[in-house]
């Protein structure tokens, strides 16, 4: 009887974890859509700033702040769902999952020091607008402002695949570990895992996590974040290019 009860308990726990995984996937799609919306709003704000329509830019900035808060709440809920699913063990009494999730959500949110106005996504929006008329110049107060990137604010943990050495923007099929969140070229990581007889440690230096073929995936948010990285790289390249005309000699109109 004890063995049957334990088996039933394990079965329930497994179903809860699968359900949590499904909910998290749906939540990631929502996060991905929010990020796409913010990128679109950033592009529109840049165009408006070029036309000196500051009032409309400010309205967009306020809307982006609201989206940043929604973005963070989605990530907090994902963390809460994962924690509840991993810790859940069925007992003799009914489980109120909503109460468990709400409690865990508040705990996760309380541990985040992020504020919409100081969030890196907001900073990217403001920087893009600022660069329209002040490219290459620091934004007001930027020297003193300390923008902290937490694990919930950016899911990109490595900019190069540890196996191929390629920048993540150059990967043919980027995938991310569901466990340690490092990014790899799909074919390279699968060959690596197979060569270690499915007992492989993450190839990223100092990462203690194991990698499994079924848990390296292209999650919905990954491609959005890589595209954001491409855009950021292009913007950085443009602001780093400085044309020097000081050595150009004036034409001597009298010379023949």
Automatic annotation (TrEMBL):
Gene3D superfamilies: Zinc/RING finger domain, C3HC4 (zinc finger). Residues 143-231 form the SP-RING-type domain. Keywords: Metal-binding, Nucleus, Transferase, Ubl conjugation pathway, Zinc, Zinc-finger. Pfam families: zf-Nse (PF11789). It is found in: Nucleus. SUPFAM superfamilies: RING/U-box. InterPro entries: Nse2(Mms21), Znf_MIZ, Znf_RING/FYVE/PHD. One of its GO terms (cellular component) is Smc5-Smc6 complex. GO terms for molecular function: SUMO ligase activity; zinc ion binding. Pathway: Protein modification; protein sumoylation. GO terms for biological process: double-strand break repair via homologous recombination; protein sumoylation. Belongs to the NSE2 family. PANTHER family: E3 SUMO-PROTEIN LIGASE NSE2. This is SP-RING-type domain-containing protein.
